[in-house]
Amino acid sequence: MAKKALVIGKFQPITKGHIDLFKQIKKKGFDTLLIGVGHCGIKNREHPLSFDQVKNMLKTALEDMHGIEYKIYKIPDIPDDKKYASHVKKIIKDIDKNTVLFSSNKRTRDCFTRYKHKLKINAPKHNVNVHPAEVRQKIARGENWLKHMPKKLHKYMRKHLKDIKKHCCK
């Protein structure tokens, strides 16, 4: 039986903290990583990257992570916490009773625990303390933001920087 980990996030952008989390999951013996990318459907200050951009960055970031299968899913935002876990489960059909949700976001964890969804929960430790909002702010202010991202994503981010800045700086 596959040992599955579920990670839900916006990944706007992917940081070294996200990569550290994926490595923690692999180290704990999980062989399947289910990644739900939450997205509101439009680019704005909090979502300067499209789902396809995030998906491409995740694939690039994970290409060297051997021994763990990963699947990436688009999770459209809905405004109802009570229905959120069911919404996610309809999209990610691989979730089963043995899937473990890895999330440091209390609201996300609550969506799965308060409304009788029986998933195991793991609040991961933060070995790399950087938040994507901090990276977006640094991009908007023209500060050094690359140090917070995996090196293999630098080229991609530079290529799309003009478009990303347009949305970060609104």
Quaternary organisation of the protein chains = single chain
Shape: globular
Using the 3D structure, state the CATH architecture. Answer: 3-Layer(aba) Sandwich
Percent strand: 15-25%
Unreliable stretches covering 5 or more consecutive residues: none
Class of secondary structure makeup = alpha/beta
CATH names the topology as: Rossmann fold
CATH superfamily: HUPs
Structurally, the number of domains stands at 1
Helicity, as a percent range: 25-40%
Average pLDDT, to the nearest integer? Answer: 88
* Lateral arrangement of strands in the main beta sheet: 3-2-1-4-5
Helix and strand element order: EHEHEHEHEHHH
Question: What Rg, in angstroms, do the CA atoms define?
Answer: 16 Å
* Strand segment count: 5
Terminal CA distance reads 47 Å
What about the largest sheet? 5 strands, parallel
Our count of helices gives 7
CATH class type: Alpha Beta
Account of the protein in words:
With 170 residues, this protein is α/β, with parallel strands linked by helices. It has a single domain (4-168), classed as HUPs (Rossmann fold, 3-Layer(aba) Sandwich), CATH 3.40.50.620. Helices cover 39% and strands 16% of the residues. It contains 7 helices and 5 strands; from the N terminus they run βαβαβαβαβααα. The protein has a 5-stranded parallel beta sheet with strand order 3-2-1-4-5, sandwiched between helices.
Topology of this protein?
Layout: E1 4-9, H1 16-27, E2 32-39, H2 51-62, E3 69-76, H3 81-91, E4 100-102, H4 106-113, E5 120-122, H5 132-141, H6 154-159, H7 161-168
Parallel strand pairs: 1-2, 1-4, 2-3, 4-5
Helix pairs in contact: 3-4
